[in-house]
Predict the structure.
Amino acid sequence: MKPLTAHLIALAFFLLSSTLSFAGWGDALLKQVVKDVATETAKQEVSKAVINQFNKADPNYTGPKTAAEAEAESAALSHSAQTITLDPLNPKKDLSNTKLAKNLKTKTNRVVVGGFRVAFILSNVASASEDNGLLNLGNSAASSSGITTIHQDRSVKMEKLLYGINESDMQAIADQAYADFMQKLHSSGLEVLPSSTFVNSPQFAEIDKTPAPYKKDSGWFRPNDIHVYSPRQLPLWFCHADAQLGDKGPLSLGNWKKINKFSGDNNVIVLVPQIVINFADMQSSGRRSMFKKAKVSSEDVVHLAQGQTSLFGYYSEQGAPSGHLGAITLKKHLIVPGEFAVNYLVDETDNSVWVNSMTRLTGAAGTIHNTETWAVVANPTVFKQYSLAGSATAADAFIELLKESH
């Protein structure tokens, strides 16, 4: 138990002791509760020393207990690294297709890659809760047996934090994913303008650029938990449609207007691939009531995120006041199976001792909170290999759909 928590509990029991003694309750109940707290606290400290490892076949495996141990195990994963080839996606089944393909078919077959983004999710969180208040209806501290069962509400939370991947690793993934996409696009049969045509244009000169890498706090994770990279050949920029990952809000239309102007003047669709790479697939039971337990779980797996990994296309007719924005998007996670990291428990909080003790003293139900924080230590070589395998598979599907529309 942390020192501050122990001091707060001691102070609370001192105040309660005074209140109970004044009320004539005596010291017997209070002494028993203090004893229970000490016993349960000791049990929790012992259980914390046992570090449970997710997704291990051996039930006796307890996992690394320190960062050094995790890094050593993670480094060993590179010995089993092999070339990864994933099954191809079915473009019509696994991708959503909006105005982009239609514009290619009916408006123009000229395209230019005006931007390329690779976003890395560096932390994940899942939470769940159970509401058991209705189970306490009819309870009375004055029951004939003198024993009352109080059902506590519960909330559980799990955090996963990615370690082992640095900025040079992420930049290298962005550079190589871009090179792969461009190579495939040039063999698609579409007329591909050099990216320099867009980057050196007067319209692009007026676009508000974003320093790369852009580090974003998603609002429900930890600060700077999303890092967005652009290949070295292309500046990073966002528009109003990129509010989830970028620095522009839904009403920031300036960049969009400049892109439309370039598109209309050159009769070209401006393509912007966006690859979003995550490292953990989190699951939650959500909010439940009575008889259903709150549960969270996680699988450490490299994957391209559904609904975020997309190929955007901007098109406008010359002189038009506004343009079209289309997107081809993954309908489900693109999973890259295989072990790429080792994780270990770095922090755990549980207030059950305090809540149950207060319930025994007051008869009032409370809420038990449990939080686990896990460090996922990735092998950078394997992580890069898996990320590029996913990116290449997505690129194949995106371009196949473009070819079919042409």
Observations:
- Residues 21 and 27 are 7 Å apart (CA to CA).
- The longest helix spans residues 380-405.
- Residues 70-351+362-405 form one domain.
